[in-house]
Write a structure and sequence with these properties.
With 130 residues, this protein is mainly alpha-helical. The protein has five helices and three strands, in the order αβααββαα. It has one domain.
Amino acid sequence: MVNRTEAKLWKFFSELEREVTRLEEENNLLTEKIRQLEGLQKVSKPVPDCKRIEWVELESGKRFLTKKELGKYLGMGAGTISNQLSRGTFPIRARRVGRSVRFDMKEVLDYVETNKPFWERDNEKKQIKK
């Protein structure tokens, strides 16, 4: 009985270690992409409808942003984000985590990179597949 429990624990720990390694690699890629985008933002002129500010300092390894954190980056208030979400006009796809709303860093970076809302990016992906 003890050997079976130990085997399950070792299996769990090895899976957990692989997942942590995968998340660390993904975080490094996202961090590098942020650095590249920051370099591009300094050269290009800002988009008129969205005044972006410098990327806010986030906890290391953080993948999901709150409305407040996203608002700091985009230069708008959390209330504005909430209003646009309720109207269906906010260009970044939101995720529900329990009762709260979070924004995936990948979605934010995709929007900043292309300056197109998620529904336009999805349509383009569908067109490419056809």
